[in-house]
């Protein structure tokens, strides 16, 4: 695996040169990565609406985890019609975080200059894509489609779901000292240089906490970021994959990030290490 990472880094250097040339020539590639699990009633619409924007140099990568409802097959059929569409098939449900990493890896190999992450369920309005790209082109390494800045909002979610999202954001911001209002947002545009800077093997979040880990990496590694308002609507079709297990795993991942990186966790680390040494 380590060799694979090294190879990847070597290739990236070549690709960066190719990339710089393309940018100098004014041709830029935007890759939209969409993870899917049981999205058969949304996949066609989301692809149609994104491609319908007719943005030059834009392509899509679907990362499907062998959805039992056949989303992967639908994506394959659509990819025969649309050359801008690529599909990654994984064996089973492996988490949204690792799905994004698989998509990002392919996007880098295919010379993406900007990488957008978005849900398949149209909660993220494709019409916001030009706004995300516009800010990214101004030089921001991370542009967040934010529900919690002025002008942004969530429509149709019930109180429980709104409270869950709001409190998760608050706890995350406090624990990781992040000055970002929507740390858990999934609608984002990343610069190639930020994604290239990541050591994929060190990303620890498998599930939804992945979004937070990305924001944390941007902020703490000196990359630039901005939030732009979006209106987030509830999905029309299918079900959310956020269940109790996902929430518990995400909370665990966020506490793990704080434990790994925040100075005030040092006394806790000290006590845990001493106790372990004493017991075993
Ligand atoms: N490939 C893959 N996609 C996933 C997984 N979990 C969720 N997704 C997709 O990630 C996106 C966000 O999930 P969603 O259920 O809409 O989360 P919510 O918007 O927070 O309720 C959707 O496109 C899902 O189909 C997973 O384990 N693997
Ligand atoms: Mg969603």
Describe the structure.
The protein has 280 residues and is α/β, with parallel strands linked by helices. It has one domain: Spore Coat Polysaccharide Biosynthesis Protein SpsA, Chain A (Alpha-Beta Complex), CATH 3.90.550. The protein has 10 helices and 9 strands. The strands form 2 sheets. A 7-stranded mixed β-sheet has the order 3-2-1-4-7-5-8, sandwiched between helices. A two-stranded parallel ribbon has the order 6-9. Strand 2, helix 3 and strand 3 form a beta-alpha-beta unit. Helix 6 runs parallel beside helix 9. It is globular. The site of guanosine-5'-diphosphate has 20 residues, from strand 1, strand 2 and helix 4.
Radius of gyration: 19 Å
CATH fold topology: Spore Coat Polysaccharide Biosynthesis Protein SpsA, Chain A
Low-pLDDT stretches are 1-10
Distance between the termini: 31 Å
What do the pLDDT scores average to? 89
In the CATH hierarchy, what is the architecture at level 2?
A: Alpha-Beta Complex
State the main characteristics.
disordered N terminus; binds magnesium ion; 280 residues; Spore Coat Polysaccharide Biosynthesis Protein SpsA, Chain A; globular; alpha/beta; seven-stranded mixed beta sheet; binds guanosine-5'-diphosphate; 9 strands; 10 helices; two-stranded parallel sheet
Topology, pairings included?
Elements: H1 2-24, E1 30-36, H2 43-52, E2 58-64, H3 71-81, E3 85-89, H4 96-109, E4 114-117, H5 129-137, E5 142-146, E6 153-155, H6 159-176, E7 188-191, H7 192-197, H8 210-220, E8 225-229, E9 231-233, H9 244-261, H10 266-279
Parallel strand pairs: 1-2, 1-4, 2-3, 5-8, 6-9
Antiparallel strand pairs: 4-7, 5-7
This protein binds guanosine-5'-diphosphate and magnesium ion.
Guanosine-5'-diphosphate is lined by residues 35-37, 39, 63-65, 93-96, 99, 119-121, 123, 235, 240-242.
